[in-house]
Write a structure and sequence with these properties.
single chain; elongated; 6 helices; mainly alpha; 87 residues
Length: 87
């Protein structure tokens, strides 16, 4: 058992019974998730840019053509409705 785990167990033991159960459930849920992925999640996770490409692959070209060409420089305008900085 690691020192960190030992410290965590000591803190949990000091909690009231209901809080101990809550923490135990969190731990069990976390370890079940780890068991399900079996360590594969970290090695199979794609970089965000590859995930973005995967998400965009089914978007029709005509929809992409409708996107603003100044979306990066005027993102505040498109997200928050502020006046455009460059017209």
């Amino acid at each position: 058992m690691t020192a960190l785990l030992q410290k965590a167990i000591e803190r949990v033991r000091a909690l009231p019974a209901a809080e101990q159960d809550r923490v135990a459930k969190l731990m069990l849920d976390a370890t079940e998730t780890a068991d399900e992925t079996d360590g594969k999640e970290a090695t199979q996770q794609k970089p965000f840019w590859e995930r973005a490409v995967d998400l965009m692959k089914d978007v029709p070209e005509e929809e992409l053509d409708r996107l603003p060409t100044d979306g990066a420089t005027e993102h505040d305008h498109y997200i928050y409705g502020t006046p455009k900085r460059y017209s």
